[in-house]
Each structure stands twice: as structure tokens, then as C-alpha cells.
From TrEMBL:
Span of domain Dienelactone hydrolase: 27-192
Gene3D superfamilies: alpha/beta hydrolase (3.40.50.1820)
Descriptive protein name: Dienelactone hydrolase endo-1,3,1,4-beta-D-glucanase
Pfam hit, one: DLH
Keywords, alphabetical: Hydrolase
InterPro entries in the record: AB_hydrolase_fold (IPR029058), Dienelactn_hydro (IPR002925)
Organism: Mycena maculata
Sample GO molecular function, one term: hydrolase activity
Amino acid sequence: MSFCNDYFKGVTHEGTPKGRTEKIGGIECYIATPSVEYPKDKVIIFLTDVFGLGLKNSLLLADDFSRNGFRTIVPDMFNGDPYPVNALEPGAPPFDREKWWPHHGQAQTRPLIDSVIAALKLEGVTGFAATGYCYGARYVFDLAFDGIIQASAISHPGRLVVPDDLDKYAAVCKAPLLINSCEDDRAFPLEAQAQADLIFGGGKFAPGLLVIFPVHIREETQTCRCGGACCRIE
């Protein structure tokens, strides 16, 4: 299997996560809860990159979303076996990606996410947004395909099939979509970005599309706005 090497690169951010870790639906989750009154029937599902709960960057972002008034749930999508964070360190010993990857495909990962969402529904949650980063972006699309989420955000999206997934999203999804990408993105290159413009642009996608690049916003509709990396319905 070929990989985008950027899946396995990064830096560790400064800061201390403020949330807590507990099981939801039998799945270990990081939970970032607002310190002020917030809508108890709405949550953001934060779907991480391959480093999962082990890399605090994701937890710090979840804390930031909670400070903006939304309870944010970060499920362990790797069942305790994320890509090792120490692989980011200079001189780290090699890690066998080819051996690790088959244990973390859609057949293994999606049921973990579904268990968390089912448990949250039993708690009374009725509104879901999802934000996905690299590896996690695939599952944002899948949740939108199934009509589970009401708002979608993806950043440096990996493992999307272009244009097929974009065409399907435009055809069947009602959740507004935020795409965070950049001019140099091997997971979602300029050709894929052009396809997104062609499929969603010019008001073709009624729920709303927002595509953000480092220095400019290419398209925006009134029904979709950016709140950090989370797209939400006005």
C-alpha cells in the first residue's frame, strides 16, 4: 500500500489539554466541555490523524472548540494502537507502517465511531458536526453520506476518492462542507481542489461550501461559515 508521507509527519504543539478522558459506548474518548452554558443536545465529533489521542495537538484543538461553546468528543479510532507519537522525534527507530495499516481500515475504525455516536444519541444528543484531519477526514465524508452529521469540516483530507467522493457528497449530502487545504497538499492536491471547485462551486451545492487556503478564501455561501476548523449551520 502506498502512503502520503505527510500522514506521518508533524510537530508537537505547546500547551496542556484541559479536558478529561472517559469511555463513551465502550470507546476511550477525550472530552472537552465548555466552561459556560452550552447546548447539551449538540456535539462536535473530532476525528484525528493517525496519531490519535497520543498527540496532544488534537486535544488542544478540541479544547479550543469547547471554549467556543461546543462539547467536543475525540474518540480513540485506533483501539489503543495509534501510530506512535515518538515517530515524530529525530532519529526515532523505524516503524512498520505496512504492518500497522491493515489493522486500521474502515472495517475496524467505523464501528468505533458508530459506537460513540450511538451512545451519545442515548444521552439525548440530536445534533452532530464532525471535523476530520488527514486520516479522519475520510470518516467525516462517510458520516455525511449516511446522514448522521449536520455539518462537515475536513483538513488536509486523506483517502478521499476524487472526483467520486465529491460527486457523491454533492448528490446525497445536506451538511454544509468546509475544506481546509493548501497549495501544496499531496493528500488533496491542486487537481483535487479544482474538482471540488467544479463540483461544488458557483452555488451548485445548496447547503454551502467554504474552501480555505493559507492566504485567501475562494468560495463562501451565507449558509456556511468557518469557526476554527468547524463548519456550522447558521
